[in-house]
Amino acid sequence: MRAPIAKVLAGEARERHGKDLACFCPLDPSRLAAIVRDVARVELKPREIIVPVLGRESPDAKVQQFGTGSIIGDGSILLTANHVVDRPGQLFITTIPEPLFEVELDAEAPDGLLTIEVAQRDKDHDLALLKINDYRPSNPLIPFFDFPLHENLPASTYEYSTTREERGRIRLSPVARQGHITRRLTVDRLGPAGEKALEVPFPAIRGASGAPLILEYRGGLHLIGVLVSNAEYHLLPAHVQLSLDTANTLADEVRYFLPQGIAVNICHLRSMYDRVVDTPGG
To answer: Per residue in 91-112, pLDDT tens?
Structure first.
């Protein structure tokens, strides 16, 4: 089982500096930060494999964020939702944020970008695979095609919905969300993508589309779905607000909904994944 982060930090501190963490912290914050970064690289690596999907219309154009993607398989393939990259004329790029800290990109002249190119798209199931150039993570996500998914199975995601643009700079600020599969269902409005869909308690907020649904199993992170849409449930009867005008007729009505995320089941990826992996040079 993975050691708690506090124990890992304390062990790293003792190994490097011969001191307990309690004594070490107030004495040298800069060295503590270095240890935290090192431990994050070793123990917690979501930013190495779950990345923002960015794009621009030309090499000199302003960078925009479109969604989230995950690096899977042999590390050369990036998976996201098809609607994230369904943008003719866009040059798609990504970056690998440093652990633990927000990363800022100059939207006009960013550094450290990696080219990603669309390899295969499945519009029916809202999935897309892209080739990522000049980067290979040590532990890419593994698609769990044959795992028996069921209600109440623990599931999590890591996504970039909290990314924001301020004064010409893109501030990448990923967030982890945890929950469980609330149910398996068919979502008719999504067409084939809605078959065997997975519902989770965290919504696909703007910027989160394409994020992986992850199952931690036997010490590894496994891919079981891709966030693509939301469901909403009307909170009745308590969460309805009515406003009446002077004639005592209805002037306004506010209804409240419970948002839930919808993920495409990873089983729909299999044939496209096999085609891309089997491509010579891929």
So the answer is: 898 888 765 455 666 656 566 7
Q: How many domains does the chain have?
A: 3
What is the span of the domain harbouring residue 60? 46-132
Task: Reduce the DSSP state of residue 118 to 3 states and report it.
Answer: strand
User: The tokens 């995601």 sit on which residue?
Assistant: 157
Q: Is the omega angle on the peptide bond into residue 280 within 30 degrees of 0, that is, cis?
A: no
What is the rounded distance in angstroms from the CA atom of residue 150 to the CA atom of residue 154?
10
Domain membership flag for residue 241 = no
Question: pLDDT tens, 215-266?
Answer: 988 777 899 999 999 987 766 665 666 677 777 777 677 777 778 999 999 9
Shared domain for 63 and 84, answered yes or no, is yes
CB atoms within 10 A of CB 57: 12
Same domain, 158 and 178: yes
